[in-house]
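Bug: token stream looks shifted between consecutive jobs. Job 1:
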Amino acid sequence: MNAAIARWWIGLILRSARWSAPARARLARVLGVLAWLVVVPRRRIANANLRACFNTQDAAARHRCNRALFGNAMRAALDYGVLWTASAQAIRDFVRVEGAQHLADPAGRPTILLAPHFVGLDAGGIRLAVDERMVTIYARQSNPVWDEYLRHGRARFNEPVLIARRGFDLRTAMRSLREGLPFYYLPDMDSGPGNSIFVPFFGVPAATLTMVSRLARSLDARVLMAVTEQTRDGYVVHIEAPWQDFPGASVEEDTARMNREIERWVLRMPDQYLWTHRRFKTRPPGAPDLYAR
């Protein structure tokens, strides 16, 4: 995306913030069809991921999921306008929170919120930041215009601690957790072989970071799922109770459990999961490239 296209796209996002949610949804459906037709590399990545994870499902069902995802992702993109400009109360109304009582811990232990890559990821993060200072990881965008607006949106409330994914500063994350800041952590990206192990994701070996297990062990941290669902007129952040019996017997067991918890939510709303990421780009020795054409 060059700077001119980024400015046009941001302009559309900001204008659409004044529209009703159904109006944005209608435009998103049109844009989703166009994106599915034009952004062929992402469509192929999503198809490869769906084929690998749901290999017993018929091709037509995977096709429908793939197309629906593009529309949902476009809706989420247009909804940035609300997240970037609306008041704190308007964002509370737009993004509801279920299970907020689980955020409090009488023992005062550090809290890790696992936020997998669903289309509502940013909506959930910004909504939680309205009420509480948080720490999260930030991936710098290649387009500086788009990067500026994303950073602005994520930093609007309560001065969150944004840690760059590249050259991740673990000490800052641990210090923030010890100070009582919840860690809004995105656990399901393939970051390469370093600090990752292969554990199943829908039966496919997936290079998965072990940070959640290691932080829970070293800091006695609680781990909670914080999954954001896109609804007809907004979003809902589902915060679940802390995991019991975690950490378990080993880092490997903990990391496999994390992927199973993510699978549970993917099955609930498969067309909102960002299959357009190359989740399986790192492969075990000798395994074929899932994205080879």
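Job 2, same session, no restart:
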Amino acid sequence: MDHSTISASVFHKLADRYREKYMDLTMYDDSYREFCQLLPQGRARVLDAACGPGNVSRYLMAQRPDLDLLGIDLAPRMVELAREAVPSAQFAVQDCRHLVELQRRFDGIICAFGLPYLSGEEARAFIRVAGQALDPGRVLYLSTMLGQDEDSGFESCSTGDQVYINYHSEDQVFDWLRRCGFTLLKEIRIPSPSAAPKPTTDLIVMAKK
């Protein structure tokens, strides 16, 4: 069973509802601004992996209108909404587990809460391939909900639809980054937003290849 594809179908169905709930959330903006500051000046190439309705891309482009930004998501409706929200960027329906298919290199890759929809093996593979797609010295931004493997499983949305949530520990994330040749630049822990289905602690990391 491909849990990511199942979750993507639910996000396609509920994309408009998700946009209403999270599009104007500002609690992560400081970390997005720090990510922008770590990018080179000029037309930096950025990938927004698992971009959702374009909330992160919209913030990045507001901070840095000069960015050459590509957003990808597996849910087609999310990509449609992202195009509406950020017409100056490019968006495509693409599985973040298959970054090699993009055949592009980047100055920065941001994956805001994409890891909860990737198994541990998939998350480790994503970090490895992201490192290969980054130019030397460039930055990777990751955020996820902290927990243990045994906490992972199907969880119900307010509509009754179910998505499979993978929980990853700090030690796992840090080990994956280290093994893939990244140097940790910043780590942040904050409580999950009040709109989240259940309370967790969010981990945000920025790392350099």
